[in-house]
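PROTOCOL LOG
Step 1. Enter all chains and additional molecules of the complex.
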Amino acid sequence: YPLFQLGGPQLRIFRPNFFMLAVRPGVPQPEDTVQFRVSMEMTKVDIKNYLEKIYNVPVAAVRTRIQYGANNKRNHKNQRVKKPDYKVAYVQLGQGQTFQFPNLFPEKEQDAETRSFDDFKDKYMESEKQRQKGDPRRGGVPDWFGL
Amino acid sequence: MAAAVAMAALCRRLTGALRLGSAAAGLRGLTQNLFHKNLTKAEPLHQLKFLHTTLSRKGLEEFFDDPRNWGEKTVKSGDAWNIKQLRGKSSEDLHKLWYVLLKEKNMLLTLEQESKRQHRPMPSPERLEKVQKSMKNIDLVVREREIALRLLQTGHEKPVPGEWRHDFLGRTYWYSYKEWPIPWYLNKKYKKRKFYYLPHVNHFIRLRLEKSLCRRARRKNLEKTRQKVLERKFPHLAVKSQSQ
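Step 2. Run joint prediction.
Step 3. Record the structure below.
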């Protein structure tokens, strides 16, 4: 970005490439708070302007923190694999609005293909279980015991 | 990243103009077909009321897909935007398209994260790649236009002037000038950087050159041997040179 000095022009970005995604909060948050994962370079002011100008959402307050991604998992070459860092923003909506994170995977009625596949799978599992069971005359006693 | 006032005005015009189906050329049907060209399910724009209505309730719903698509296994989407198609669009159209694609990308990323959280497969993940490709293409087209304008107005191709410099390892690279509040002879960090190399580096430059030449020769020979193998296997498909 160009250098800013006192009295200089305000920085304007005409095609921002910053992403912002809404996440379901792990810890229950108050009604008006929405949790986002934002690009690491965004500031609180940036997030406020982004939401207000692009999404037309009134924002009262923004708090951010950076989540460190762990670096202690190892791959098949015993090299450390880093999980990426990300910035989390807690945005409180203005004008008394509330937000509940919706359920994006509601139960939908399956089509004929999946239903038939599920039936086939259930039948197969039942037949397998029947084969695994021992002689019914032994009354559930395993074969390990003699006689 | 303070958004421009012009951008805000554009956004407001976007909501108003598109709903009203204004006479601006090519804006009809732009809302639905903007992020997916050749969308199979084009929602008809018959809400041609003369009231100004916002696109969706306070906008937080734009982080999520159409509620009818929640829980589906696949969501149909068209192809990504081509560079040739984008070159025909005006700058205003490209600007609006950029924001539509940005919102779509945010929506898809939200969906991806939520599907990871719920341990479910994300419906149609190829949409993300399409959106990223479209955004890259828009960037390229805008850059091309900027370069053309700059060449006409100033005669310079690059936005920032620069020059070829050596680094301390003998490599040559394009150094673009940076903006500093103080001149270079007062800049301690800059003075520590060395844009020259000492004579003992010449040996390593020669080795590097030899390595690159070796690699190039190896690649060429590999190509030649592969061609020979193919010609031996399929002699009837050999390219007959013009013999006259």
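Step 4. Note key features.
The radius of gyration of chain B is 27 Å.
Confidence is low (pLDDT under 50) at residues 2-6, 14-34, 38-55 of chain B.
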